[in-house]
């Protein structure tokens, strides 16, 4: 049994080494991918659940890998965060999203009232000069600050309330909007929510997927909608996949949503085709 244990240990440590090696490889390939322009943004429409009008687009990054094809973000964002590459990547993402939005506005295919939502990683949020970076990107791309919404998660926001207040204050001063992503999955204190200059709560899709059947999720979704309303925040539901969910949300007062029922995240050409069909939804 002892020997087995040793073997087991040796096996485990060999596996660890292999994993560490893989990580180093992946890290350097993330760097190269950024240099070679292999990242790409997809856009998921956010719609008014009553009128069907376009309200926003969420930018979601993918890696167009020369051999592996299209790699989803959960396969590389965590590592990009650990290694810090997410900061450079995040700047690229913001710039790309703003540039794309501006070009759609110029072409007249998207109204200036439609928001572009960009996800911010906690590492980016910790960057000393975040608001300067955002300001610079807006100036370079010519996008109006009010057209940009940054998404941060509840856990990012709740780590240090002092610092969060400061950073959000600086962003809001620019005129940029701030949404709390995956709302309901963390532990926001109501006092803090009230104090922070937020503009929107995004109901996490885990609370949307089983409504109206699951009574716990129904209660949570309703509570978030009521909370948003009492704090004068906008509210948007993620992961809307069925007509029943859409009807429930509309009835309960959540009038914006995104999800496969309307559209998956789309690459630029497909999004442009989607825009043409919008009035038929
Ligand atoms: P997220 O910000 O919560 O994004 C929503 C995710 O839900 C997206 O996955 C989207 O494709 C998926 N989704 C949308 N509608 C539905 C639906 O109706 N049903 C279901 N089951 N899923 C739906 P995606 O694109 O794979 O992104 C996963 C996560 O990766 C994102 O979660 C976000 O945390 C991260 N991520 C994506 N793009 C970026 C980025 O540009 N920067 C950063 N920092 N993180 C990103
Ligand atoms: Ca998001
Ligand atoms: Ca989310
Ligand atoms: Ca999520």
TrEMBL record:
Region forming the signal peptide: none
Domain EAL: 23-279
Tree of life domain: Bacteria
Protein name as annotated: EAL domain-containing protein
Residue numbers of the full-length protein present here: 801 to 1081 of 1082
